[in-house]
Amino acid sequence: MNQFATPSDEKNWAMFCHLASFAGIIVPVFGNVIGPLILWSMKKDYSKLVDREGKKAINFQISMSIYIFISSILVFIGIGVLLLIGLALLNLIFVILAIVKTLNGEDYQYPLTIKFIN
């Protein structure tokens, strides 16, 4: 852990881990996972907060990718389109909530998350 990390810097880097999930807009295939994964990999030793929040962001985005994949298959029977729209909205809302809570120093647990990284 970096002994010179200020609480403000820790919060900012933790927030960037959540914010990096919007890389999926630029890199549609797994950009939502790759963005947080790169930041977490670079900064996980920076502070415990960054390590914890980065893991949360990665786990949530991997979970969302699985749900989106399943919904994409269900498009062929009609319900998938509604599921994809719902998942996109939930992803946006939950990531924004995580960003705000992290900046406020509050703990936020993403709902619907499968823990792949502990």
UniProtKB/TrEMBL annotation:
Residue intervals passing through the bilayer: 13-39, 66-99
Keyword Transferase included in the entry's annotation: yes
Chief location of this protein within or outside the cell: membrane
Subcellular location: Membrane
Membrane topology, as annotated: Multi-pass membrane protein
Keyword Cytoplasm: no
Organism: Labilibaculum filiforme
Coiled coil location: none
Protein name per its UniProtKB record: Orotate phosphoribosyltransferase
